[in-house]
Structure formats: C-alpha cells, structure tokens
Amino acid sequence: MDVDTARDSRFYAELKRELLAALPELGIDKLGIASCEPFVALKDRLLRHRELGYESGFEEPDLDKRTDPSLLFDRPQSMISIAIAYPSKLSNAPKSEPGARRGILARASWGEDYHKVLRDRMERLERWLRERVPEVRTENMVDTGALSDRAVAERAGIGWSAKNCCIITPEFGSWVYLGEMLTNLPLPPDTPITDQCGSCTKCIDACPTGALVGPGQLNSSLCISFITQTKGFVEDQVMRKIGNRLYGCDTCQIVCPVNKGKNWTHQHELQPDPEVVKPLLVPLLTIGNKEFKHQYGHTSSAWRGKKPIQRNAVIALGNFREESAVPDLISVLLQDPRPVLRGTAGWALGRIGTPEALRALEQAAGREMDEEALAMIRRALQQDNSAPEDAAQGKGHA
After folding, report:
1. Could you please report the per-residue DSSP string of 198-265?
2. Residue from 392, 234, 248, 226 nearest 311 by CA
3. N or C end: fewer C-beta atoms under 10 angstroms in the chain?
C-alpha cells in the first residue's frame, strides 16, 4: 500500500515537526531523516576495506544490500535514523584489587541489551506513525540489518562519522546507539553535520593495537572489541593489550575530547549493575550456563556465549599476574574440556610465573593432546615477562 498521494509536502513537513516534538515520549534522544539514494562513496570504501582484509566477518556480505536501500524495501521514500544515549560512567564502582581482581564490559553492553531497547523504540515510533498515516510501510533495522547504521545516521544529520569510526553527535558525543527505519513516507530530509574532528588524532594514537589504521578506517582483525568477541586462541602480544577487558573496548571513545564529561542516565533500561559490568574474575572461570544466562543473558555481551568472556577472564588474571588465582587457573589448565581455555590458562600461569604455576605448566606439557593448546603451554614455559606492562591494562576503564 502506498501513501495517499493527495497529501502534499506541507503535510509531511508538519508530521515531521510533530514527530520531533514527540521524541521524549517515544524514548528517543535524537532523530533525523535521510534520503534513500544509494551510498555510492560508501560502497567504494567497503570494497577497498574488503580488499585490504579489514572486515570482521560479522557484516552483511552483499555490498549492494549494504549500500542500496531499494534492494531492502519496495520503493522507499525516506529513512528515519534514531539515536539513544547510554551511560559512560559507573557509579559506586567496586574496586579491583589484589585477591579480588575484576574485569570490565564495554559501555555499549551495559544495562539491557540495546538491540531490545532500540527495537522497543522503533515499535513505539512505528505505532506513532501508523496512528497518523494508517497506510505507512516500515522496515526496522538495529545493528544486524544490512544497511550501515553509521552511514544512514551521517546522512540524516545525527552526527558526523569520526576518525574512531563512531558517529559523534554534538549533544551526546559518541555514547549513542543507532537504529534506522525504511519507510514509504516522503519526509523532508535533514542536512548532514560537518565533520568536527579537525586535526585531532587522539583516538588513532590511543588505540591499543593500532587497529585504527587511518581516519575512519578500522582493521577489524586487530580491534580489541572484535577480538574479545572471538572464540579462538589469541596471540600473546594481543592478550597483553587486552588488559582486563572482558567484552569490547572503549579506549577510542574515552580519549575523544567531545566525549569528555558526557554521561547519560535518563534511559533507565541502559543503566548498569556494577557487579555485572565490573565482575570478579575468578568466579567467571567456573560459571555455569544457567548462572551465565541469569547474570548476562539480558545484556548484549551474551550473544557469543560464555566462552569468550571466560577466556578473557583468564587473560585478565594473567595480565594482573594475580597469584591468588593460580589454583583456579591450574584447574582450568588441567581439567577444562576446551583447548582454548586450557591453552590460555597456560599463558596466564606463565605470566604469573610462581613455582606452583610453573610446575603445573610442566605437568600440562606432558599430558596436553591438543596441538595449539600444547604449543601455547610450551611457549608459556619459555615466555619473557620482563616486558613493561601494557598501558591499556584497565586504564581508562570504569
């Protein structure tokens, strides 16, 4: 069904004005309108990105679908981009200290899963539009849609596409979740915001692994946020740079001058539980599926299951060189059924380097059957821990 052609541009301009006034009741912090022409320049960048091997593998593989709204929706007339602000500071954060070391989840996974929150806001928006234009057609996308959230948001004037590959809004900084709606309503488009990064390169300079290979250019395979979500073995030097991160990485946003002092607490579903987002590490080593689902199932960090978070907890204990965790790490090394966890525990014990840890590594080296885990254990027995501690180890985290 198409919209009533008798409605003129003044109707849709007024509809947009009413919509912007209704944003607080819809729970939306910012909204912009974009036209539906193909993203030609973006497609060229994505092709180059693919040629360089910078993709994460989580993206929609069809570049035409990522850049042409008409392939996803019958005769689209406009795209609505929304932004919801989330918190950047943790109130009453528990201390991470010897004997009680803690990890940290990235801010984008604090509170309730943002996919659910954004879908709720999109549904509110859709109902609002349908009450006023019954024949409206819509297609909502949240993070996992084919289109680039950032490209739509940039065209819709939500913010500019920054050097750290985030959308930065003048009002909320980059602490925003993005979603978009394709529609058959010919709403008047907004004007994109001029890039305001200027000559600043703080995000590029601060990236722990050099994953920001240029302004707005990310090598996903080096990005700690991506690496913490993988399930396999991680290279030694990368593990040292992971620090105590359990899921995601906020460094490039923390150092951004635009984000300084910005913290948003008005979206109640997104407020964090300090014990969930900054948990004790040792209990994570043996957390069961039921307990993991109870503690993390409502967050976006749970989508890959418990194994990556458990592996990252092992890495964090190694980076802390937490001697009190040696018995727990030895249990993982000798008893865990998963080779990645056994090998990573060997790395962590090698980092800690106490006599008890080294004896366990010797024992494991004589019984480990998995080739990759065994290689990791053998390297742990030979590793040099004299290198200076990585500056990213917990720095800048809550």
Report:
1. TT--HHHHH-TT--EEETTEE-GGG-HHHHTT--S---HHHHHHHTTEEE---HHHHT-GGGTT----
2. 234
3. N
Query: What average pLDDT does this structure show over 75-79?
Result: 95
Q: Is the pLDDT of residue 393 over 60?
A: no
> From the CA atom positions of the chain, what is the Rg in Å?
23
Active-site pick, 64, 68, 120, 143: 143
Enter the tokens of residue 262: 């910005």
Element (H, E) at 32: strand 30-34
Residue 390 bears catalytic tag = no
> Can you list the domains of the chain with their CATH numbers?
9-91+110-183 (no CATH), 209-248+281-382 (1.25.40)
Residue 35: the pLDDT is 96
pLDDT digits (tens, 9 = 90+) for 215-228: 999 999 999 999 99
Q: What is the pTM of this model?
A: 0.91
Please spell the DSSP secondary structure of 70-137, one letter per residue. GGTSSS--EEEEEEEE-----TTPPPPBTTB-B-EE-GGGSSS-HHHHHHHHHHHHHHHHHHH-TT--
- The whole-angstrom separation of Cα 58 and Cα 45 is 17
Q: Are strands 245-247 and 104-105 parallel, antiparallel or unpaired?
A: parallel
Place of tokens 């946003």: 253
- d(CA 185, CA 136) in angstroms, rounded, equals 7
Tell me, what amino acid is at 70? Answer: S
